[in-house]
User: Fold this.
Amino acid sequence: MKGGMSLARAAVGLLAVFLLLASLSAAQPDDALNAPTYDVSNRWRYTVEGEVAGLAGFNDSAGSVGIRGISDARVTSIEGSRTTLSWTSDFSLEGELSTTVEQTDVVATLAGTVGVSQVESYETPYFMPLEVQASADFELSVTAFVLTIDYSASFEMLLSNTPRDSFPAYPLTVGERVVDVPTHLESDFTFSFGGSQVDNTSTIDAESVLRLNITGGHDVKVPAGTFKALRVETETVNGTAALPFLILFQGTRQVAFYSNEVGNAVLFQFFSGDVEMGNATLESYSYSLPSETPFWQQPAFLGGILVIPAALLLYFFWRERRKGL
Assistant:
């Protein structure tokens, strides 16, 4: 009887151990950003607002140009380990510019629209895109005194990154790291006004250096809800960074709050130095985490179900052999 009680206690103990292992294997840490599980139904919508740091063709001007608009992101294709995300954005511009023309100070009002598209290609298991194609179209009306001039500008960019050991990969954990990556950049800019046109095409191969600082434990409230998020700060030390919206804000630093629940960022903040130029907040999204496997279907638990009866059989076989000796 005593041997049977000891055997029962051992079996219960083994089962408890396997239940604990199963629960631990199912748990997801709060201080790590896991690889998103995308499908082509995934959508994210952001409200973007801020001030543009500079406008193409107006780089010698000073002033304040506000930007407001909506940006939509969606998964457009999944082929093997490569996923493509497409961003489509429509913004309005409004503000004032001041400059000096022939020793005369001129203040002009500006109004216009900007359409931006950006296609990002991701390769498992990397956090950052390997390739970005972006384009922007500006339509502007500038009024000074009683004269209004219409301007238009277009910009196209192709950026490619070559991963190295420092290239961040999932799961992304807290800490600071330096990303050193070869970058190839092709850009084409066209600026038109008053019947004149300026074209500029360039190709650059650079050793881009980015600094990432990641912290966890943030609760971020946006119109789409309140989410636990990791704060990922990306600073361009040298070269260029393929980050959403920077084509507009021309900043050097971005802070993004990423949530495992959303599969993307819930909040972007754009900085030029220490000055915040703008932000993008999540309005709505369509994304769901894969359903968690019940603990009784976890490999550790299933293994326990097989191991415990086997142990019992071995015990009884050993006991019968002892009786026969």
Q: What stands out?
A: The chain has a mean pLDDT of 80. Residues 71 and 89 are 4 Å apart (CA to CA). Helices lie at 2-26, 246-249, 299-324. The chain is about 15% helix and 60% strand.
